[in-house]
Amino acid sequence: MMNFSYTRATTVGDAIEAVAGDPHARFIAGGTNLVDLMKYDVERPGRLVDITRLPLKDIEDTAEGGLKIGALVPNSDLAYDTRIERDYPLLASAILAGASAQLRNAATTGGNLLQRTRCYYFYDAGVPCNKREPGSGCPAKTGVNRIHAILGASDSCIATHPSDMCVALAALGATVHVEGPDGARTISFEDFHRLPGDSPEKDNTLAHGEMVTAVELPAPRFGKKHTYLKLRDRLSYAFALVSVAAAVELDGDVVGEARIALGGVAHKPWRVPEAEALLKGKLPSSSAFEEAADRLLKGAAGHGENDFKIELARRAVVRALFQAAAGTPQVQSSKIVN
Amino acid sequence: MSNVHPYVGRAHPRVDGALKVTGRAKYAAEFFADGMVYAAAVPATIAKGRIVSIDLSAAKSAPGVIDILTHENRPELPDSDEPYLNDMVAVPGSPFRALYNDRILYSGQPIALVVADTHENARHAASLVTATYEAETPTVDVAEARHEAYDTFEPRDGIPPPPPPRGDAEATFKGADIKLSESYRVAPEHHNPMELMATTVIWEGDGALTIHTKTQGVNNPKNYICAVLGLDPGKVRVTSPFVGGAFGMVLRPQYDLLVATMTAIKLERSVRLVLTRGQMYTMGWRPDTLQTVALSAKEDGELTSISHHAIQATSQFEDYQEPTVNWSGLIYDCPNVSLKYELAKIDVSTPSDMRAPGAALGVCALEIAMDELSYRLGMDPLELRLKNYAEKDQNDDKPFSSKELKAAYAQGAEQFGWKDRDSRPRSMRDGKELIGQGMATGCWEAMMQPHGGRATLSAEGKLEVACGTADIGTGTYTILAQIGADALGLDIDDVTARVGDTSLPMAPPEGGSWGAASAGNAVRVACTALKEELLKAARGLHDSPLANASLEHVSFANGKISLVSDDEKFVTFGDAVRGSGSADVTAEAMFEPDEDFAGKYASYTHSAVFAEVRVDEQLGVVRVTRIVSAIAAGKILNLATARSQILGGVVMGIGMALHEETMWDKALGRVVNANLGEYHMPAHADVQNIDVIFVEEDDKANPLGVKGLGEIGIVGAAAAIANAVFHATGKRVRDLPITIDKLL
Questions:
Q1: In this predicted model, what pLDDT tens digit does every residue of B516-571 receive, in sequence order?
Q2: The pTM of the whole model exceeds 0.90
Q3: Residue B619 is nearest to which of A41, A146, A231, comparing CB atoms?
Q4: B174 pLDDT exceeds 90?
Q5: Is the pLDDT of residue B587 over 90?
Q6: Domain-embedded: residue B4
Q7: Same domain, B427 and B333
Q8: Name one GO molecular function term (chain A) (predicted).
Q9: CB-CB under 8 Å, A41 with B127
Q10: How many domains in chain B?
Q11: By CB count within 10 A, which of A182, A265, A329, B229 is most buried?
């Protein structure tokens, strides 16, 4: 870890100014990922601007009937917030599927969006990695890639985004509020994270100095008809091999609207509106769900060790849609997949 | 606390528990001295080749840097293997020498040691050291080296080579109708103790050193460092009072000891070196092993032949060995047995003993093969084991000193409810989950080592029992205190146990499950010697009521030495101690295992492990819902710490079956998941109900009747789970861990 300077910001404006003016500066909140990366010499900021005292800790009602979640709301507080539990149980469930209680206590809403991939090679400063050192190469493509992307990968990077929370936010159609040197703007969730393409060093569409200030949820929908199903290499405290956030609205017996987002399979939470549209007007059934899953996974490609994730994802989508349609969401404290 | 003898055999809480949970138990990295400096190791980024140059310029100018050692500027080191072989757990070959020359033998090998004023500055500067290499293509997969496997190695001390063939397994197999021959592989594993490798060297002046290092036995690092650096053993003290998990990883001195001590001597300052979690994956590991087991049987299940062949990975520079295949000639009665054990060299650090070395792998393969055979035969897996129950050790043609495995099978099966199992695969289900039940046998050798012990009684009636063994978390402190309390009839709160210091009586490294039997009996004989001394002092008192008594005439209880025939006649411990003319009475004794007995009998611990799994039929999610581990291991000294030992072994078995795998990138020759986030050990959610049963077993190999428990808990556990997965799914997975992808 490099020596770094540390300052504590008291206003959002000060924080942005401090970081925007220094290419080696980073915001730090919970630090659950950044500090690890600094210890691994993957992130080498010269300056940390602590934003934990900024007034971004509230969950407010919006005029549209949704909620605006301050960027500094801890993951635990968010998951156990009564409005979130009642109106956005998919989000609560996804948060509780991730990390550990201790990490969720420290991690923040904004930080969760900004966590970096868990690609083994990204974490090892002794080996090439295009995301860590652009142009150095990608050993994962022909190496140990059990946990890597099957969708949206590029020749230069096959890393995945590790968040559980973001998969639910993608399914719910959240909006990210950011502020930067050029003022405030909003970014739709699907445009927040990006695919690696030729510049895998960029995880998202934030400019340097821009700060996530809030995540906004639209008015609640789907009631109990949702689920977050996470499949991993042990029953707790592991990143997803594949996860599925699913929600459906039934129109009588048939599906009105469906949302499906996949985690652990791409550089960002993976949503395909055409796959969701396929379900419209269909009776919940294996064949309908499999058709949607196949559309969602269209173009999926493995790299050897992760080939199995294509079939695993297909099966997980079908199961998740059954759970959602039946209104029997996966209970994260139970490891039995219902 | 009331005096409740005997303490031995009870579930007494850990005597060091309060120290541990309050942070007062000191570990190797927690010792401090004024002027101490901090070191950080720089690992090689290639797996094979040589260092062309090392660029220290950036590191040297980093804040706080005091010195940087490399192979080019290090103090002189011996240039023959001889001094480095002063390691009681050394294996044949040329021991690794840190910072010796420009050769890179494995990825992560230390190429420099940065010394700075703080730990953080040392680590930062270490990250600035760069090297250029002449890299060669490494091989890190034993399967790619199998064509170069060899069995011409010098046998490792203490590791019996496979016994010669008996009967003709090959011909019998060829002519058999019912048979199978399958290949098995268990992923390489690392020990992953909670405590990181660490050495703190305290520079005492005048060349005297106190070395606090993570070790399973302080005498081994002391002998090693004195030999390698030419130190006067009279000026070196090594301590390791507490060890935060070891599992075999620190039986051998690791490089932290050598480089930290070398640096302290060079700088004439105290030095602390703590390795990083990632560096913990660049030393000692459970070797990748390719196994083939061939079995044949008659229709009634009687085994007619067993062949077991293993090719095990070792490093380029040492022939590490463990007893992998021998178990297949031991556990079952069989006239035709052929066992073969070979090594194959790959570009990795030398493997090391890891909980039940050899047995954890070899018995796993045998016990999955036995399960496969049971289905071929249409026979209950437990019945098949009973049909082939071995009444004697056929490898060595000796009777067992005791073997209550049948009782373990019976009690384990009863507790588990084995008789209610539907034997057909895929026959049991609950909702979307398939239920499977499997079982396996476990076995481990009950060993003992010559071992010193000391017992000291103060005039206040406080007893100290001491020896140079280690408590690596197993409960050694507690059992030694229990044995001492019983010997002198004391309240256990009046007994202190001390271990982990070269100033204490000689002890070998603690491993192989011999610790309890060896250290326990050493304390027992020391207490007997102490009682002799106390009685001598009591007899010498003026008008002593015990004037003519010998040890068999007296009892030690309630702070008194009393005549058995007339307990009104006694001498208090205080009077006896004062009568000795010293402040306390102390006695040292050596425990020597009974070689005659060992020549006549074979001593083993056994287990019967029953496992239930539930597997989501579509998604391949496995849950281990129940394990019953029935253990036959002689006398159980402490039911609480013993149970913890077995629980820990079973959890590691769950890891072996379902989760654990050290993954190397084949091109880079480098471990990629070198952290506790990506190296998956079972989390709490993966561990559900585990029942431990200790069956009665009366063993005469030593007076305590104890056999040891450190290893037996893991042996068979992974096989029982793998067998349960087959029973649930009908899918036989022969390469562990059984991850989700293997069940899709």
A1: 999 999 999 999 999 999 999 999 999 999 999 999 999 999 999 999 999 999 99
A2: yes
A3: A231
A4: yes
A5: yes
A6: no
A7: yes
A8: oxidoreductase activity
A9: yes
A10: 3
A11: A265
pLDDT of residue B504: 98
Residues B269 and B296 in one domain: no
> Taking chain A, what is the end-to-end CA distance rounded to the nearest angstrom?
44
CB B254 within 8 A of CB B108: no
- Say whether A312 and B673 touch across the interface (CB within 8 A): no
CB atoms within 10 A of CB A253: 8
CB-based contact B116:B56 (threshold 8 Å): no
By residue range, what is the domain housing residue B123? Answer: 31-137+194-246+250-282
The amino acid at residue A322 is F
In a domain, B143, yes or no: no
**Position B297 in a domain:** yes
The pLDDT score that the predictor gives to residue B3 is 56
The yes or no reply on domain A226-326 and CATH 3.30.390.50 is yes
Ranges of chain A with pLDDT below 50: none
Question: How many whole angstroms separate alpha carbon A91 and alpha carbon A83?
Answer: 11
Closest residue in chain A to residue B740, using alpha carbons only: A233
* Residue from the list A139, A144, A337 with its beta carbon closest to the beta carbon of B663: A144
Q: Which two tokens stand for residue A275?
A: 């796959």
CATH assignment at residue B489:
3.30.365.10
For A313, the closest chain B residue by CA position comes to: B619
For residue B217, the domain's CATH number is 3.90.1170.50
CA–CA distance from B534 to each of B531, B542, B543, B591 (Å)? 5, 15, 16, 20
**Mean pLDDT score across all residues of chain B:** 97
The answer to whether residues B581 and B604 belong to one domain is no
A124 CB neighbours in chain B (<8 A) are 670, 672, 674
Q: Give, in order, the Cα–Cα distances in Å from B119 to each of A123, B56, B266, B424.
A: 21, 18, 19, 59
CA distance A218 to chain B (A): 32
Q: What is the C-alpha to C-alpha distance for residues A160 and A267, in angstroms, rounded to an integer?
A: 4
Chain B CB contacts of A311 under 8 Å are 744
Q: Per-residue pLDDT tens for B616-634? A: 999 999 999 999 999 999 9
Nearest to A234 among B120, B127, B686 (CB): B686
Domain end (from B556, B574, B592): B592
Co-location of B430 and B457 in the same domain: no
Q: Write the residue in B45, B675, B744 that is nearest to A308 by C-beta.
A: B744
Residues B420 and B292 in one domain: yes
Residue with the two structure tokens 């009444």: B391
Chain A residues whose C-beta sits inside 8 Å of any chain B C-beta: 1-3, 41, 118, 120-121, 123-127, 139, 142-144, 146, 231, 233-239, 241, 308, 311-312, 315-316, 318-319, 335-338
Same domain (yes/no): B465, B498: yes
Q: What is the pLDDT of residue B2?
A: 45
Taking CB atoms and an 8 Å limit, are A338 and B739 in contact across chains?
A: no
State whether B689 and B579 are in the same domain: no
Q: Name the interface residues of B facing A (CB cutoff 8 Å).
A: 43, 45, 63, 120, 123-124, 127, 431-433, 614, 616, 618-621, 623, 658-659, 663-668, 670, 672-675, 677-678, 680-686, 739-741, 744
* Count of A-B CB contacts under 8 Å: 106
How close does chain B come to A101, measured CA to CA in Å? 13
Mean pLDDT of B717-732: 98
Asked if A120's CB is within 8 angstroms of B672's CB, the reply is yes
Q: List C-alpha distances in Å: B289 to A324, B145, B339, B353, B362.
A: 44, 11, 15, 14, 9
Q: What's the pLDDT tens digit per position in B464-483?
A: 999 999 999 999 999 999 99
Q: How far apart (Å, rounded) are the C-alpha atoms in residues B561 and B543? A: 15
And the tokens for B331? 């556990």
- Tokens 């040297």 correspond to what residue? B60
- List active site positions of B: 711
Inspect the interface and report whether the beta carbons of B120 and A1 lie closer than 8 Å: yes
In one-letter notation, the amino acid at residue B10 is R
